[in-house]
Amino acid sequence: MTIVKRFHHIGSMPLMIAFVALIASALFPACSLFSSGLDDKQQERLDADVKEAASQYDEGHYDKAYKYATLAREIDPKDLRARVIQAYSLMQLGQNDPFFENISMRHVPGARQLFEDVLKDSPNEFKARQGLAIMAFSEHLVFHDKKMRDFLGMELELRAFSEKVSSLKTLSPNDPGFFGKLSDLRAEYDNFRVRYIRCYETRQYFEDAPPISKNPDPKLKLLTGRTWAEDSTYVDAIRFDLDQRRFDDAAATLATLREGAKTCAFYWEQRSLERLEYALKLYTQLESGAPWHAGTKRDLAFVHVAFGQFWLNKALEDAKRDAATKLANIPAEREAEVIRSFYCDEGRHDSELRPHVKREFADAIANLREFVRLDEEREKQRVEHVEEQEKIAAGDESNIFMNNLVGRFGEEMQFAIKEARSYRKMTILLLIELYTFPIYGVQDFEQATLWVNRLRDIDDRDPIFYFIWASIREQSGDAAGAIEDYDNYLARSSIVEDANRRTVARSRMDRLKLEAPQKN
To answer: Residue 35 to residues 2, 70, 347, 438: CA-CA distances in angstroms?
Structure first.
């Protein structure tokens, strides 16, 4: 799930990848409950395993983190730290629900159950409550971006097959190219059939269920209401009808599969929306209990962005239908651009969904701004803490051990500050994008400019500033200034690292240069 990619994407990472990167940061400096009733040797082993589990998690080795947390729980099954690390590790590995563990050769709880068990023992455990919220949002992203979009893509592909079948119906076997087109269509359909069957094998046609490696039970009902045996017959029948040149039968069966794909897409869209609403509820509860927690503000902003994108997609669908009656001959290659422009023009298109879009993105902005404020305060505290420790160490220069310890502490804090700034930079890039483009309903060039300056304070060497300034100037009608800044960006950016954004910059420059004479 990404916000509309107008900065392609300014933050350099799609929203989903950015979200996963953020929750993969150090989560376990401490937990609120610790073990008791162990002898010194057991406690030492337990602490060592927990420390190693946390270290492996922070380095992104989630399978190893889960392994060490499991070893810790063998010493003390109730150790809260180990249970939380186990749950987060499983969540990162995609094991939210009970699964069969190859090492122990038995079914074990997934992340969801582990979090819920922790909350039974410690109802206010922040990390467990946060984990359930993260899980709900990540499941929304999976259902929406993966499952729903897969079926929407399938429906479009089936529609394209139907159009090609219809074109063959108008030809005679004696017409030049008939057999070549038929051969190409059969080969194309064979490739599609393999991918179609894979959707069954990964259980995307079913309600929530873990992936399996073999075909599902032929008797199980699918989301379409049919069985696998029935649908597989349809899939095979289309290939047979093409071989026999029974194009009417092939078209009818394709229509049946298209309706099935749309049914599945609608189902997963609703499941996606349910998880998003649940994530909003959980994050709102987290925020009310910990208004000082910057990460909660950031994640809540992402949830509002996802809601805004949901309503925006619906609004653009309505705009597309309205545009079909009011606009003529929209070039296929410019359809998306034309529809966005049509939607933004309130004089031509009156959308009842526009207030929903604006509200969600405005709420996202409020939380993003608050995250930046809290994060800057946290950085200031870190810097002051380092300076305080350095003053203490400077008072006793003969204490080499203390000076080395303070030096290492300072290095760790500098690393933490650098990492936090990279996340804050991404957040500010998203803020600038929301303020720059009218499609989000919160356009404000003055605020966009202010946040560009804030971004410059973090890293004034990044050439993306020129790209951002160009985008802002382009949107505000300053074509000459936009061309100049796009040109500056191309001169300073990396051909390798910034290849995609450079392509966008060059394309926009060319378009602006072509449009300029027409406006004069």
So the answer is: 42, 15, 65, 54
